[in-house]
Amino acid sequence: MRAAALALLLAVGAWLLAGEPADARNKLKVKATPATVAPGSSVRVVVTGTSRTRCALTVRADRAGSRPSVRRRVARQSRLAIPASSAAGVRIVTVRCGTQTARTRFTVAAATAAPPAPSPAADEHETYGELPIDINEIAGYTVGDGLGGGEYTTRIPFTNGTRIRVSQGANGGYSHGNAYTRNAVDLPAALGTPVRAGFSGVVAAAVGGCPTTTQWGCNRGFGNFVLLKNVDGTCALHAHLTAINVSPGQPAARYTQLGTVGTSGSSTGAHLHYDRIDCASRASLPWSFEEAGNPREGAWVTSSNEPAPAVAPPTPDPAPAPAPPSAPARRPITVDNRVTNGMSMREDSSPARLTTKAWIRCGTRGCNIGGTERGSGGTYDAAVCQTSGERTTNGNDSSAADDGNPERFESTRYYGVRLHDGTFGFISEVWIRASDRGGLGLPGC
Asked: Cβ(82)–Cβ(176) under 8 Å?
Protein backbone atom coordinates (compact mmCIF):
# COMPACT_ATOMS: atom_id res chain seq x y z
CA MET A 1 0.00 0.00 0.00
CA ARG A 2 2.80 2.37 0.92
CA ALA A 3 4.61 1.60 -2.35
CA ALA A 4 1.46 2.44 -4.37
CA ALA A 5 1.02 5.78 -2.54
CA LEU A 6 4.68 6.68 -3.18
CA ALA A 7 4.32 5.87 -6.89
CA LEU A 8 1.21 8.08 -7.08
CA LEU A 9 3.04 11.01 -5.43
CA LEU A 10 5.97 10.66 -7.85
CA ALA A 11 3.62 10.64 -10.85
CA VAL A 12 1.82 13.81 -9.68
CA GLY A 13 5.14 15.58 -9.10
CA ALA A 14 6.36 14.69 -12.59
CA TRP A 15 3.05 15.95 -14.10
CA LEU A 16 3.31 19.28 -12.26
CA LEU A 17 6.91 19.77 -13.37
CA ALA A 18 6.12 18.97 -16.99
CA GLY A 19 3.19 21.41 -16.99
CA GLU A 20 5.21 24.31 -15.49
CA PRO A 21 5.71 27.14 -18.03
CA ALA A 22 9.20 27.36 -19.52
CA ASP A 23 9.69 30.95 -18.38
CA ALA A 24 8.93 29.94 -14.77
CA ARG A 25 11.68 27.29 -14.91
CA ASN A 26 14.10 29.70 -16.57
CA LYS A 27 13.15 33.03 -14.94
CA LEU A 28 15.66 35.85 -15.21
CA LYS A 29 17.25 36.86 -11.91
CA VAL A 30 19.94 39.40 -10.99
CA LYS A 31 21.92 39.73 -7.78
CA ALA A 32 24.28 42.54 -6.69
CA THR A 33 26.88 41.90 -3.95
CA PRO A 34 27.77 43.20 -1.48
CA ALA A 35 24.44 44.74 -0.51
CA THR A 36 26.20 47.86 0.84
CA VAL A 37 29.31 49.36 -0.79
CA ALA A 38 31.53 52.34 -0.13
CA PRO A 39 32.22 55.09 -2.71
CA GLY A 40 35.35 54.22 -4.71
CA SER A 41 34.76 50.45 -4.42
CA SER A 42 32.85 48.08 -6.71
CA VAL A 43 29.83 45.78 -6.78
CA ARG A 44 29.54 42.37 -8.46
CA VAL A 45 26.48 41.74 -10.64
CA VAL A 46 25.46 38.13 -11.39
CA VAL A 47 22.70 37.33 -13.94
CA THR A 48 21.02 33.88 -13.96
CA GLY A 49 18.07 32.30 -15.69
CA THR A 50 19.03 33.17 -19.28
CA SER A 51 20.99 31.57 -22.09
CA ARG A 52 22.13 34.95 -23.41
CA THR A 53 25.81 35.87 -22.90
CA ARG A 54 25.26 39.68 -23.00
CA CYS A 55 22.36 41.67 -21.53
CA ALA A 56 21.51 45.37 -21.15
CA LEU A 57 22.03 46.90 -17.69
CA THR A 58 21.02 50.26 -16.19
CA VAL A 59 21.62 51.71 -12.72
CA ARG A 60 19.65 54.62 -11.22
CA ALA A 61 19.04 56.16 -7.82
CA ASP A 62 15.92 55.02 -5.95
CA ARG A 63 14.05 58.32 -6.06
CA ALA A 64 11.27 59.76 -8.22
CA GLY A 65 12.37 61.20 -11.55
CA SER A 66 15.94 59.88 -11.37
CA ARG A 67 17.58 58.97 -14.67
CA PRO A 68 20.02 56.09 -15.24
CA SER A 69 23.61 56.95 -14.29
CA VAL A 70 24.96 53.76 -15.95
CA ARG A 71 23.97 52.14 -19.25
CA ARG A 72 26.06 49.26 -20.53
CA ARG A 73 26.13 45.72 -21.86
CA VAL A 74 27.08 43.12 -19.29
CA ALA A 75 28.03 39.46 -19.22
CA ARG A 76 26.43 37.03 -16.84
CA GLN A 77 29.06 38.03 -14.26
CA SER A 78 30.31 41.64 -14.26
CA ARG A 79 31.74 44.18 -11.86
CA LEU A 80 30.60 47.81 -11.61
CA ALA A 81 32.95 50.49 -10.30
CA ILE A 82 31.37 52.92 -7.80
CA PRO A 83 32.92 56.39 -8.32
CA ALA A 84 34.52 57.96 -5.25
CA SER A 85 32.21 60.96 -5.70
CA SER A 86 28.99 58.86 -5.52
CA ALA A 87 26.27 60.18 -3.20
CA ALA A 88 24.96 57.87 -0.49
CA GLY A 89 21.66 56.10 -1.13
CA VAL A 90 19.91 53.11 -2.70
CA ARG A 91 20.62 52.20 -6.33
CA ILE A 92 18.25 50.13 -8.49
CA VAL A 93 19.87 47.75 -11.00
CA THR A 94 17.72 46.69 -13.98
CA VAL A 95 18.87 43.93 -16.37
CA ARG A 96 17.05 43.17 -19.64
CA CYS A 97 17.83 40.01 -21.61
CA GLY A 98 15.57 39.80 -24.65
CA THR A 99 11.98 40.08 -23.38
CA GLN A 100 12.84 39.24 -19.77
CA THR A 101 13.57 41.89 -17.12
CA ALA A 102 14.91 41.53 -13.58
CA ARG A 103 15.75 44.05 -10.85
CA THR A 104 17.78 44.19 -7.68
CA ARG A 105 19.23 46.93 -5.52
CA PHE A 106 22.28 47.82 -3.46
CA THR A 107 23.17 50.72 -1.14
CA VAL A 108 26.04 53.19 -1.47
CA ALA A 109 27.21 54.05 2.04
CA ALA A 110 28.13 57.58 3.12
CA ALA A 111 31.74 58.47 2.35
CA THR A 112 34.21 57.91 5.20
CA ALA A 113 37.94 58.29 5.60
CA ALA A 114 39.81 56.32 2.96
CA PRO A 115 40.53 52.75 4.15
CA PRO A 116 43.97 51.14 3.79
CA ALA A 117 44.73 49.90 0.29
CA PRO A 118 43.25 46.38 -0.10
CA SER A 119 45.32 43.33 -0.82
CA PRO A 120 44.55 41.83 -4.21
CA ALA A 121 42.34 38.73 -4.30
CA ALA A 122 42.15 36.35 -7.23
CA ASP A 123 38.95 37.91 -8.60
CA GLU A 124 39.75 41.61 -7.95
CA HIS A 125 40.74 44.11 -10.59
CA GLU A 126 42.71 47.37 -10.54
CA THR A 127 41.61 50.17 -8.19
CA TYR A 128 42.93 53.73 -8.52
CA GLY A 129 43.09 56.92 -6.53
CA GLU A 130 44.35 60.41 -7.33
CA LEU A 131 47.66 60.37 -9.22
CA PRO A 132 50.51 61.14 -6.72
CA ILE A 133 52.26 64.07 -8.47
CA ASP A 134 53.40 67.61 -7.60
CA ILE A 135 51.20 69.76 -9.83
CA ASN A 136 53.31 72.85 -9.14
CA GLU A 137 56.45 71.11 -10.37
CA ILE A 138 54.65 69.90 -13.48
CA ALA A 139 53.31 73.41 -14.18
CA GLY A 140 56.93 74.60 -14.34
CA TYR A 141 57.79 72.39 -17.34
CA THR A 142 57.19 74.10 -20.70
CA VAL A 143 56.85 72.49 -24.11
CA GLY A 144 58.27 74.13 -27.24
CA ASP A 145 55.90 75.47 -29.89
CA GLY A 146 54.92 73.02 -32.59
CA LEU A 147 55.32 69.92 -30.41
CA GLY A 148 52.57 67.55 -29.33
CA GLY A 149 49.54 65.92 -30.89
CA GLY A 150 46.68 68.22 -31.81
CA GLU A 151 43.16 67.91 -30.45
CA TYR A 152 44.08 65.35 -27.74
CA THR A 153 45.34 62.80 -30.29
CA THR A 154 48.36 60.53 -30.04
CA ARG A 155 50.02 57.64 -31.85
CA ILE A 156 49.66 54.23 -30.18
CA PRO A 157 52.57 54.20 -27.68
CA PHE A 158 54.30 51.06 -28.95
CA THR A 159 56.82 50.12 -31.63
CA ASN A 160 55.57 50.50 -35.21
CA GLY A 161 53.58 47.43 -36.31
CA THR A 162 52.73 46.20 -32.78
CA ARG A 163 49.20 44.72 -32.75
CA ILE A 164 47.35 44.64 -29.41
CA ARG A 165 43.83 43.80 -28.28
CA VAL A 166 42.28 46.28 -25.83
CA SER A 167 41.47 44.46 -22.57
CA GLN A 168 39.53 47.38 -21.02
CA GLY A 169 38.26 50.55 -22.70
CA ALA A 170 36.91 53.92 -21.60
CA ASN A 171 34.33 53.65 -18.79
CA GLY A 172 35.29 50.00 -18.33
CA GLY A 173 33.46 48.33 -15.45
CA TYR A 174 36.59 46.81 -13.90
CA SER A 175 38.51 49.98 -12.92
CA HIS A 176 37.85 52.81 -15.40
CA GLY A 177 34.82 54.32 -13.71
CA ASN A 178 36.03 57.30 -11.66
CA ALA A 179 37.14 60.84 -12.54
CA TYR A 180 40.79 59.81 -12.79
CA THR A 181 40.35 56.83 -15.14
CA ARG A 182 37.07 57.12 -17.10
CA ASN A 183 38.77 57.64 -20.52
CA ALA A 184 41.71 55.23 -20.02
CA VAL A 185 42.46 52.06 -21.99
CA ASP A 186 44.40 48.95 -20.95
CA LEU A 187 46.78 47.50 -23.56
CA PRO A 188 48.14 44.02 -22.65
CA ALA A 189 51.70 43.24 -23.78
CA ALA A 190 54.58 41.02 -22.68
CA LEU A 191 56.72 42.12 -19.75
CA GLY A 192 59.54 44.34 -20.98
CA THR A 193 57.80 45.49 -24.18
CA PRO A 194 59.09 49.02 -25.01
CA VAL A 195 56.64 51.85 -24.30
CA ARG A 196 57.19 54.76 -26.70
CA ALA A 197 56.07 58.40 -26.76
CA GLY A 198 53.00 58.88 -28.97
CA PHE A 199 53.78 62.59 -29.47
CA SER A 200 56.69 64.96 -28.84
CA GLY A 201 56.70 66.75 -25.51
CA VAL A 202 58.48 67.06 -22.15
CA VAL A 203 58.63 64.42 -19.40
CA ALA A 204 56.60 66.01 -16.59
CA ALA A 205 56.92 63.13 -14.08
CA ALA A 206 58.75 59.81 -13.85
CA VAL A 207 57.59 58.16 -10.63
CA GLY A 208 58.99 54.78 -9.56
CA GLY A 209 59.50 53.11 -6.21
CA CYS A 210 57.09 50.22 -6.78
CA PRO A 211 58.20 46.58 -7.06
CA THR A 212 58.16 45.21 -10.59
CA THR A 213 55.53 42.71 -9.45
CA THR A 214 52.01 43.58 -8.29
CA GLN A 215 51.81 45.57 -5.03
CA TRP A 216 48.21 46.65 -4.47
CA GLY A 217 47.81 50.40 -3.96
CA CYS A 218 51.45 51.37 -4.73
CA ASN A 219 51.48 54.95 -6.09
CA ARG A 220 47.68 55.03 -5.63
CA GLY A 221 47.39 51.90 -7.79
CA PHE A 222 49.21 53.27 -10.87
CA GLY A 223 52.53 51.62 -10.00
CA ASN A 224 55.61 53.01 -11.76
CA PHE A 225 54.48 55.64 -14.27
CA VAL A 226 55.59 58.38 -16.68
CA LEU A 227 53.72 61.59 -17.58
CA LEU A 228 54.49 63.17 -20.97
CA LYS A 229 53.38 66.82 -21.16
CA ASN A 230 51.89 68.22 -24.36
CA VAL A 231 52.03 71.82 -25.58
CA ASP A 232 48.25 72.04 -24.98
CA GLY A 233 48.74 71.59 -21.20
CA THR A 234 47.54 67.98 -21.03
CA CYS A 235 49.63 64.98 -19.98
CA ALA A 236 49.75 61.43 -21.34
CA LEU A 237 49.84 58.81 -18.56
CA HIS A 238 51.81 55.57 -19.00
CA ALA A 239 51.26 53.35 -15.92
CA HIS A 240 52.21 49.91 -14.43
CA LEU A 241 55.73 50.11 -15.91
CA THR A 242 58.58 47.74 -15.03
CA ALA A 243 61.39 50.12 -16.02
CA ILE A 244 61.48 53.90 -16.53
CA ASN A 245 63.95 55.20 -19.14
CA VAL A 246 63.45 58.99 -18.87
CA SER A 247 63.75 61.76 -16.26
CA PRO A 248 61.52 64.75 -15.35
CA GLY A 249 62.20 67.82 -17.47
CA GLN A 250 63.70 65.78 -20.32
CA PRO A 251 62.45 66.65 -23.84
CA ALA A 252 61.09 63.49 -25.49
CA ALA A 253 60.53 63.34 -29.24
CA ARG A 254 57.82 61.05 -30.58
CA TYR A 255 58.94 57.37 -30.50
CA THR A 256 61.35 57.93 -27.59
CA GLN A 257 61.33 54.89 -25.29
CA LEU A 258 59.76 56.04 -22.01
CA GLY A 259 59.88 52.69 -20.22
CA THR A 260 58.80 49.06 -20.48
CA VAL A 261 55.50 47.24 -19.90
CA GLY A 262 55.03 45.78 -16.43
CA THR A 263 52.49 44.87 -13.75
CA SER A 264 53.51 47.22 -10.92
CA GLY A 265 50.89 48.75 -8.61
CA SER A 266 47.28 47.53 -8.64
CA SER A 267 47.46 45.24 -11.65
CA THR A 268 46.38 41.68 -12.44
CA GLY A 269 48.74 41.13 -15.37
CA ALA A 270 51.29 42.78 -17.65
CA HIS A 271 49.76 45.70 -19.56
CA LEU A 272 50.04 49.44 -20.22
CA HIS A 273 47.39 51.67 -18.62
CA TYR A 274 47.22 54.69 -20.99
CA ASP A 275 45.22 57.89 -20.53
CA ARG A 276 45.25 61.62 -21.31
CA ILE A 277 44.75 63.78 -18.22
CA ASP A 278 44.59 67.42 -17.17
CA CYS A 279 48.07 68.02 -15.72
CA ALA A 280 46.67 70.24 -12.94
CA SER A 281 43.43 68.55 -11.83
CA ARG A 282 44.58 65.03 -12.82
CA ALA A 283 41.10 64.40 -14.26
CA SER A 284 40.82 61.97 -17.18
CA LEU A 285 40.06 63.72 -20.51
CA PRO A 286 38.49 62.49 -23.78
CA TRP A 287 41.22 61.65 -26.33
CA SER A 288 41.85 59.36 -29.31
CA PHE A 289 44.53 57.33 -31.10
CA GLU A 290 45.38 58.67 -34.55
CA GLU A 291 45.28 55.08 -35.84
CA ALA A 292 42.15 53.79 -34.09
CA GLY A 293 40.15 56.57 -32.42
CA ASN A 294 39.13 55.69 -28.83
CA PRO A 295 38.88 51.88 -29.06
CA ARG A 296 36.40 49.80 -27.07
CA GLU A 297 37.14 46.68 -25.05
CA GLY A 298 38.03 43.76 -27.33
CA ALA A 299 39.11 45.92 -30.29
CA TRP A 300 42.44 45.17 -32.04
CA VAL A 301 44.72 48.15 -32.65
CA THR A 302 47.99 48.37 -34.61
CA SER A 303 50.64 51.00 -33.94
CA SER A 304 51.84 53.21 -36.80
CA ASN A 305 54.05 55.15 -34.39
CA GLU A 306 57.36 56.33 -35.79
CA PRO A 307 59.97 59.01 -35.10
CA ALA A 308 58.82 62.55 -35.79
CA PRO A 309 60.29 63.93 -39.06
CA ALA A 310 63.41 66.02 -38.58
CA VAL A 311 62.85 69.74 -38.96
CA ALA A 312 65.35 71.27 -41.38
CA PRO A 313 66.74 74.67 -40.37
CA PRO A 314 64.96 77.44 -42.27
CA THR A 315 66.72 79.12 -45.18
CA PRO A 316 66.55 82.89 -44.78
CA ASP A 317 64.65 84.62 -47.57
CA PRO A 318 63.97 88.24 -48.23
CA ALA A 319 60.96 89.32 -46.27
CA PRO A 320 57.93 89.12 -48.63
CA ALA A 321 55.30 91.79 -48.74
CA PRO A 322 52.69 91.07 -46.08
CA ALA A 323 49.64 89.25 -47.42
CA PRO A 324 46.23 90.59 -46.49
CA PRO A 325 44.70 88.61 -43.63
CA SER A 326 42.40 85.81 -44.75
CA ALA A 327 38.97 85.46 -43.25
CA PRO A 328 38.53 82.36 -41.07
CA ALA A 329 36.71 79.39 -42.60
CA ARG A 330 32.93 79.57 -42.06
CA ARG A 331 30.74 76.64 -43.04
CA PRO A 332 26.92 76.58 -42.71
CA ILE A 333 25.67 73.34 -41.13
CA THR A 334 22.14 71.86 -41.01
CA VAL A 335 20.70 70.13 -37.93
CA ASP A 336 19.51 66.50 -37.90
CA ASN A 337 17.94 66.12 -34.45
CA ARG A 338 16.56 62.61 -34.97
CA VAL A 339 17.22 59.60 -32.73
CA THR A 340 16.85 55.89 -33.36
CA ASN A 341 13.51 54.17 -32.77
CA GLY A 342 14.33 50.55 -33.42
CA MET A 343 15.10 50.38 -37.15
CA SER A 344 13.47 53.75 -37.89
CA MET A 345 14.22 57.34 -36.82
CA ARG A 346 12.13 59.89 -34.92
CA GLU A 347 12.58 63.54 -33.92
CA ASP A 348 14.12 63.86 -30.45
CA SER A 349 11.85 65.41 -27.83
CA SER A 350 14.63 67.86 -26.88
CA PRO A 351 16.02 70.23 -29.54
CA ALA A 352 19.68 70.46 -30.49
CA ARG A 353 21.51 73.41 -28.93
CA LEU A 354 24.97 74.90 -28.54
CA THR A 355 26.97 74.29 -25.34
CA THR A 356 29.87 76.04 -23.67
CA LYS A 357 31.81 72.75 -23.40
CA ALA A 358 32.23 69.80 -25.76
CA TRP A 359 30.14 67.72 -23.34
CA ILE A 360 26.91 65.71 -23.19
CA ARG A 361 24.08 66.06 -20.64
CA CYS A 362 24.62 69.81 -20.36
CA GLY A 363 21.10 70.29 -19.02
CA THR A 364 22.29 68.96 -15.66
CA ARG A 365 25.86 70.26 -15.92
CA GLY A 366 25.02 73.90 -16.59
CA CYS A 367 26.69 74.22 -20.00
CA ASN A 368 23.69 74.78 -22.34
CA ILE A 369 23.52 78.11 -24.23
CA GLY A 370 19.97 79.48 -24.22
CA GLY A 371 18.43 80.78 -27.43
CA THR A 372 20.44 78.43 -29.68
CA GLU A 373 17.86 75.60 -29.91
CA ARG A 374 17.25 74.03 -33.35
CA GLY A 375 15.12 71.16 -34.66
CA SER A 376 15.86 69.00 -37.71
CA GLY A 377 16.29 71.19 -40.80
CA GLY A 378 17.37 74.22 -38.75
CA THR A 379 20.77 75.73 -39.52
CA TYR A 380 23.75 77.24 -37.78
CA ASP A 381 25.25 79.83 -40.07
CA ALA A 382 28.92 79.54 -39.19
CA ALA A 383 30.81 76.40 -38.10
CA VAL A 384 34.35 77.76 -37.75
CA CYS A 385 36.43 74.96 -36.17
CA GLN A 386 36.37 71.38 -34.89
CA THR A 387 37.58 69.62 -31.73
CA SER A 388 37.24 66.40 -29.74
CA GLY A 389 34.92 65.97 -26.77
CA GLU A 390 32.72 63.47 -24.96
CA ARG A 391 31.24 60.57 -26.98
CA THR A 392 27.74 61.26 -28.32
CA THR A 393 25.28 58.88 -30.04
CA ASN A 394 21.80 59.18 -31.54
CA GLY A 395 21.07 55.60 -30.47
CA ASN A 396 20.31 53.83 -27.22
CA ASP A 397 23.35 51.96 -25.90
CA SER A 398 21.11 49.64 -23.89
CA SER A 399 18.80 48.74 -26.79
CA ALA A 400 19.73 45.77 -28.94
CA ALA A 401 16.88 46.74 -31.29
CA ASP A 402 18.75 49.91 -32.28
CA ASP A 403 22.08 48.21 -33.06
CA GLY A 404 21.17 47.36 -36.66
CA ASN A 405 19.72 50.78 -37.57
CA PRO A 406 21.80 52.03 -40.56
CA GLU A 407 21.39 55.67 -39.40
CA ARG A 408 22.67 55.00 -35.88
CA PHE A 409 25.75 57.19 -35.45
CA GLU A 410 28.26 58.04 -32.73
CA SER A 411 31.22 60.43 -32.62
CA THR A 412 33.60 62.41 -30.39
CA ARG A 413 33.91 65.25 -32.97
CA TYR A 414 32.33 68.61 -32.09
CA TYR A 415 32.00 71.72 -34.26
CA GLY A 416 32.74 75.16 -32.86
CA VAL A 417 29.94 77.47 -34.06
CA ARG A 418 30.02 81.29 -34.23
CA LEU A 419 26.55 82.84 -34.62
CA HIS A 420 25.87 86.18 -36.32
CA ASP A 421 25.48 87.90 -32.94
CA GLY A 422 28.94 86.75 -31.81
CA THR A 423 27.75 83.83 -29.65
CA PHE A 424 30.22 80.90 -29.72
CA GLY A 425 29.47 77.33 -28.66
CA PHE A 426 29.93 73.64 -29.47
CA ILE A 427 27.63 71.01 -31.01
CA SER A 428 28.32 67.31 -31.64
CA GLU A 429 28.38 66.33 -35.31
CA VAL A 430 25.90 63.56 -34.32
CA TRP A 431 23.18 66.26 -34.39
CA ILE A 432 24.24 67.52 -37.85
CA ARG A 433 23.03 66.00 -41.14
CA ALA A 434 25.29 63.30 -42.58
CA SER A 435 26.55 65.42 -45.51
CA ASP A 436 27.90 68.04 -43.06
CA ARG A 437 29.79 65.57 -40.84
CA GLY A 438 33.45 64.61 -41.03
CA GLY A 439 35.05 67.92 -40.06
CA LEU A 440 34.40 69.87 -43.29
CA GLY A 441 38.12 70.64 -43.49
CA LEU A 442 37.81 73.11 -40.60
CA PRO A 443 40.83 73.92 -38.40
CA GLY A 444 41.10 72.83 -34.78
CA CYS A 445 39.42 75.00 -32.17
From this structure: no
